[in-house]
Amino acid sequence: MNDPRHPIDPDRDATGLSRRTLLRRCAGWAGTGALYTMSGGVVSSITLEAALAADAAPTATQPFTFLQISDTHIGFDKAANPDVRGTCLAAIAKIKALPVQPDFVLHTGDITHLSKEDQFAQAQDLLAGIGLPMFHVPGEHDMLDDGGGKAYLARFGKGTKGTGWYSFDRHGVHFVALVNVANLQPGGMGHLGADQLAWLKDDLSGLKDSTPVVVFTHIPLWTVYADWGWGTDDSEQALGMLRRFGSVTVLNGHIHQVIQKVEGNLSFHSALSTAYPQPAPGAAPSPGPLKVPAEQLPSMLGIRSARFAPGTESIALIDRSLSA
Amino acid sequence: MTRSPLTRRAALQWALVLPPAALLARTVGAAPAASVQIKDFAFVPEVITIPAGGTVTWTNTDEDPHTVKAVDKSFGSAALDTDDRYSFTFDKPGEFTYFCSLHPHMHGRIVVTAG
Questions:
Q1: How far is the alpha carbon of B74 from chain A, nearest alpha carbon, in Å?
Q2: ipTM of the complex
Q3: Reduced to 3 states, what is the DSSP secondary structure of residue A229?
Q4: Could you give the C-alpha distances from A67 to A89, A97, A192, A227, B34, in angstroms and in order?
Q5: Helices A84-96 and A117-128 sit at what angle, rounded to 10 degrees?
Q6: 10 Å Cβ neighbour count for B11?
Q7: CB A211 within 8 A of CB A244
Q8: A163 touches chain B (CB under 8 A)
Q9: Using CB atoms within 10 A as the burial measure, which of A201, A205, A252, B79 is most buried?
């Protein structure tokens, strides 16, 4: 469903980083055919337009903005960032300073670093300072309690199913929260599991193809780099269910850098962390925390705003680093 | 184990028979022990061979936490932060593959021989 005014080549990865040094350091993927807008600092934006549907949902009536924040890792204290609380607060200040306040915030996981009670408590306390409704999914760092994820569910599990999946609707857009960090299989990557896939099939079954869909989950749903486990074993089963929709935006965290990909009506976007950067795929012996000079750190952390323009099912994403 | 003075020849013969010291430390009268380092998102060495009754100690030197989880669930650690350790004593012979439940592409194997 390509609009000839805004051609997007679905066979190429797309990334919209505006600083070449950051591109070299953080995202060794080059791409063409994507649209970019600038908003100071490191910015990437992709506008995905689907054809107007003859039977557009009557509730998709107004533009709205939401925010994605990811990988706050409250409790991390190593060299890559000894003050993750401070950088989280800087991200929150940035959110509060946005000229148009988002309606709500999605957190794509690794809220805490070690799933400790005091880390969850501190994270919730910090994020409450945004003053907006929050929707969470866990990262693998949020599943480390003795109960293997029960601590996360005790705080964020209300209204969710299984390991914490759920969906909700806002302004005619269907949001799906998936958990791909539970019951990880030896030798594998992220994992959705049969129960969650069965729920997803049922959850999507009543929706029209013209309903814009946003899927958010921690580990990328496309294979960014298999050697480092940056992908989801059984995501194809989920993506197969999503391909009939005119506009599907997949938002992930986990890799602490922005890498994006367009595949037909599906666009995939990983996000910056507010805690610390990680190396570009294969650019280091392992995907551990990447230490950079202190003055450079803010440019490698950030948030993402997303604006929906109804009627065209288009979404504009703007990544804003903490140095912008 | 009784102590006896070793001739030079006997000492050389024992040196050839014993496994490399880096992998297996044997002290007269003590249970065997082995070490695995968790480094750069890998278990090093990937395979350890140890006699039944021996203890393996994993030490995480990464800046990311990791876990040690047996595929057959016969042993498992809590989350290990940097410099944290986990030890397990293998009483029975067998082969035990394990992985990190946070980063499941990380894997290793303990081969436990009859004591």
A1: 15
A2: 0.78
A3: coil
A4: 15, 13, 24, 30, 49
A5: 20
A6: 10
A7: no
A8: no
A9: A252
pLDDT in tens, A222-249: 999 999 999 999 999 999 999 999 999 9
Of A294, A304, A187, A299, nearest to A250 (Cα)?
A: A304
Which amino acid is present at B85? R
* Within-domain flag for A119: yes
Tally of structural domains, chain A: 1
- At A297, list the tokens: 């750190």
As a whole number of angstroms, the distance between CA A170 and CA A242 comes to 18
Interface of chain B toward chain A, CB-CB under 8 angstroms: 40-42, 62-65, 67, 71, 78-79, 81-82, 97, 99, 101-105, 107
Contact state of A78 with B97 under an 8 Å Cβ cutoff: no
Whole-prediction pTM value? 0.81
Q: Which domains does chain B have, with CATH numbers?
A: 22-113 (2.60.40.420)
* CATH assignment at residue A131: 3.60.21.10
**CA dihedral angle for residue A210, residue A214, residue A215, residue A220, rounded to 10 degrees:** 110
